[in-house]
Amino acid sequence: MAVWRMNPESTHELPNQHPPGDEPVSWGVALAAWWKQSRWQIAGLSLAIAILYFPVLNFQLLNWDDTWYLTSNELIRSWHPANLYRIATEPVARNFAPITIFTFLIEHTLWGLHPTGYHVTNVLLHLVNAVLVLHLMKRLTGNDWLSFSVAILFAVHPVQIESVAWISSRKTVLSSTFMLASFLCWMRPDRTAKQEGWGIFWLILGLLTKASTVVIPPIIVAYDVLIARKKLSDAIARQVVPTLLCMMLIFSTMNAQVTIVGGLRGHIGMSKFQLLAVNLTLLWRYLAMLIWPQNLCVLYNPPTSGITALVIASALGWGLVTVWLYRIRKRVPLITLAGISALLIMVPMLNLFPLTTLMNDRYLYLTCVPCFAVMGWLVQQLGKILVEVFPILARLRKLAAITVTTAAIGLMAWGTVQYLPTWRDPLSLWNHARITTPSLPTVHYQWALALNDAGRTHEAIAALEFALANSNPDQVDQERILKLKQRLQEETRASM
After folding, report:
1. Contact criterion met (CB below 8 Å) for 263 and 442
2. pLDDT: which is higher, 376 or 13
């Protein structure tokens, strides 16, 4: 069972090429053929997502960005032209994402602040993305089993919960839709002008949804060089216009991430070299989360000092991975492309431009796709080696593939079932966070807000006192905690 569909006269994959002299089929005919081939796989993805994420229909708004995006966001309350202009020009919650805000405007018009509608939209977008992943993987690899395995793991993996169950992460799931659509237009060996145009269209929508979409042009350059076998200069030239669009977005939003106080700031004062060192360790931790997700949390507090040995080991490990990817670039170019793509998708999250968090599950939303593809390929290579060493295992190869894949999907789905309720409401979210990551002042601050909103003001004050005494807050956090504590104490005395 081959993992990559290969052209017999070439050492690299050439997906969906028409034989010489054949005319491309119409869009409608191609869609019908694709649906006929994929309908049962799409049904499986739909069923899995529906079963796993059905509970979010009863989830509440969270006091973590939902306040900025929904509850207190006046931009989603009016269709007046002046308000639409503000949506198109103003950042919200440290992000310039006018299309994201526009979707919230539409939904607020339809169902106000009732959270169910927003959650349904996120789940449906996640389903669309899973189907697009399936389609993209089929085009690139020509292997149904691998394509469905990657798509279903993308759909059910626990690290996706933050992106899907958190309304404010709409920008992640929606921008991923546009990114995947753009990849489907551009990841073709011989693109037409029409396909180039659609690729740029989806890129623009993605840029106006989330800034991290800027990684598309370099990924397409890598595809053109590795898969389509174009010269690097030609590949870069074809991405000049998309790159200029990305640069415009970067220059207009590079300061938005630090315009609002909140989140975590301990890493913001680090030099780029220090951030690079920390990121080398975080990338291994992200990879471990994909393989064995445990202790997932809304916020993390990874070590940033006293980790010299870990940094050196991480650097050596990634150096070996880089050498390996380079050496196999001609024999298995799709694996090299997957490695490059995974890294590029992560680049906007590595604090090259300051972010208020150092590490989040949502950063893996699309990154997991190339990672799962590489893992699948490695598992298959291991199977080939075992069959060569023990020929008797050849009879069991298909059964082993089914067993391993089913076990992986089942474990990840079970992890999602276990972790999803954490995102049900502010109390469950921050109670879990204060247990999992007790060293962060922000966690205790948000926990106190949730307690107060639930009418448990005395417990909220106690939580703030605990944060002051045990979480080593910096000056900004200390001032925020003391200010909230004072306000709650005054409200308590006034109510007596």
Report:
1. yes
2. 376
